[in-house]
Amino acid sequence: MKKVIDIFSVLFLITSLTACSPDFNGSRTGNNNQLIMEYTAFNTTDTQDFVVEAGDIIHVEIVIEDGLLSYKIQKDDDEPVAESESIFYSSEFDVEAEESGTYTVTVTGEKAKGSIKFVVESAK
User: Fold this and answer.
1) pTM of the entire structure?
2) What is the per-residue DSSP string for 33-92?
3) Which range is the signal sequence, renumbered to this chain (predicted)?
4) Torsion angle, CA of 26/31/36/39, rounded to 10 degrees?
5) What is the DSSP letter of 122?
6) How many Å from the N-terminal Cα to the C-terminal Cα in the chain?
7) In DSSP terms, which residues pair with 105 in a beta bridge?
8) Taking residues 77-92, what's their average pLDDT?
């Protein structure tokens, strides 16, 4: 009887461990002018700083296949220039930088699957 309990305990442990979803499963590229991610699992928060000149455009493409995504684009401690929480639909838009400086893109996924692209396009 003890062997049967031990076997069920081991099977339960294996099942429990494999049922956990990872924080992130995918690819990420980020630097001073882009953040590109494709993922099958995104359950965390990620940030990237951009060096932006006044008049530059931050082009955004969001593809949501499953789950929810939140994002924020913010210069220093100023009010965010773009922000949305718990979105469940794909979108594409541009954000124009009114001032030069460092802008931080923050993205949070909740059981999200899809891709994001934030790319700085020079006004010059």
Assistant:
1) 0.83
2) TEEEEEEEEE-SEEEEEEEE-TT-EEEEEEEEEEEEEEEEEEETTSPPSEEEEEE-S-EE
3) 1-21
4) 10
5) -
6) 76
7) 48, 73
8) 96
pLDDT attached to residue 8: 52
Q: What's the CATH class of domain 22-121? A: mainly beta
Tens digits of per-residue pLDDT, 95-116?
999 999 999 999 999 999 999 9
Tokens of 113: 């699957």
Contact 42, 116 (CB under 8 A): no
- Structural domain spans, the chain: 22-121
Q: Which of 16-20, 38-42, 97-101, 119-123 has the lowest mean pLDDT?
A: 16-20
* 8 Å CB contact between 105 and 73: yes
Q: What angle do CA 123, 105, 99 make, to 5 degrees?
A: 40
Query: Are 48 and 119 within 8 A, CB to CB?
Result: no
What are the residues whose beta carbons fall under 8 Å from the beta carbon of 90, sequence distance 6 or more?
62, 63, 64, 114
